[in-house]
Amino acid sequence: MSSVKLIQKNKKAFFNYEIIEELEVGISLVGTEVKSVREGKCSFSDSYIVPKNGSLMLIGFLIQPYTHGNIFNHKTDRTRRLLAHKMEIKKFTRKVNERGFTIVPLEIYLKGNLVKMKIALARGKNVRDKKEAIKERDMNRDTRRQLRELNSY
């Protein structure tokens, strides 16, 4: 049994997209990138995944340079290849091309000593859906606050 340590979660993806299907993939990284990810120095800022030549490419995912690195440190915003089974890649590619879905990264974590990423097939939300999500979140927060105040008496 390998332990899973969550490094970072893409909260913006859950707000902007309706998640249809999830998949766990590996990431092709160089040594200093792995060390930097272990320190938690990565960012999902506007990252997305594109199927290209029978593989999935992660674009816009920033991994900061390793603090103890030297002149051979990695570039922060390079395109990285995601590692998945060929049939899973074909399935996701087909759905992106036919139905207009988007593939977004959801979270990055360590599974044992490997860096893994959870990606998802997603459909963009409308502005109305986003407003409803905000309203529902605010209502839940208010009810939790009121329950906490009632229980404190």
Automatic annotation (TrEMBL):
It is found in: Cytoplasm. It comes from the Bacteria. The gene is smpB. Its main location: cytoplasm. Pfam families: SmpB. InterPro entries: SmpB, SsrA-bd_prot. One of its GO terms (molecular function) is RNA binding. This is SsrA-binding protein. Belongs to the SmpB family. One of its GO terms (cellular component) is cytosol. GO terms for biological process: trans-translation; trans-translation-dependent protein tagging. HAMAP family: SmpB. Required for rescue of stalled ribosomes mediated by trans-translation. Binds to transfer-messenger RNA (tmRNA), required for stable association of tmRNA with ribosomes. tmRNA and SmpB together mimic tRNA shape, replacing the anticodon stem-loop with SmpB. tmRNA is encoded by the ssrA gene; the 2 termini fold to resemble tRNA(Ala) and it encodes a 'tag peptide', a short internal open reading frame. During trans-translation Ala-aminoacylated tmRNA acts like a tRNA, entering the A-site of stalled ribosomes, displacing the stalled mRNA. Keywords: Cytoplasm, RNA-binding. The keyword Cytoplasm applies.
